[in-house]
Amino acid sequence: MNLKPWMTLAVAGFAGAAFAQDSSTLSIEGEAMVTETAAPAHMENVDTIYSGWRFRSTETQALETDDFDNPAFVFVDQGIDLFDKVDGTEGKACSSCHENVEDFAGLRTQLPRVQDGELVTMENLINDCRTERMGAEAWKWSKGPMTAMTALIGLQSRGMPMDVAIDGDAAPFWEKGKELYYTRVGQLDMSCSNCHEDNYGVMIRADHLSQGQINGFPTYRLKNAKLNSIHGRFKGCMKNIRATPFAEGGDEFKALELYLASRGTGLSVETPSVRN
266: how many CB neighbours lie within 10 A of its CB? Predict the structure, then answer.
């Protein structure tokens, strides 16, 4: 395959200043969401952060304002069924230990986090419960059951501000994620920052580049009509720049997830969001 047109797009297509995101305000089921706030102090090159919702078309934005219209809620309903489904050798469901899913309010804002010296995500916590308490098989990272459950649990934190810890035990994982964010990889020799920091707002492949915020994941993409995990999106981005993706659930993507979560500090959780 001739890569020259892609490389031309990557270099010439990003020339010039990024266009401004829109000024729309997001309210979901009557609850106002923070989609714009001052960037955290560790972001030296960005003054203001914006939810990816601000870069979408009016039609796509509208889908997120009403849960009845939000196509992601088909999968949230599946998550509700899975929460009460007995599975595994212990004869337990999630609800056997966690009586009310509402008790998970706030969890999404704090993940990933360090636990027993290891960086863990929501997927890790879910699979630990399945294998250690339910005697059930672990779910695959980006498959339907897992994204349905992460959407259901993440929904309980909707409207709360992202606020992951990046100091103390989390610091080395955060530093690793930052390094990955700025490292050029792949045949197109690009990093996350080339698109989502240097050129957000620019049109590419008939869509606006956002800042790559992850406060709305798992997110329903109109492109593939399903819920998409954070690591699944990382994998897709790496494929787009002709790089070999890291493993979903691997140390690299977990560190990158922590770093990106920290770049969204103060933005409201929008789980489950709708994007192109």
Answer: 15
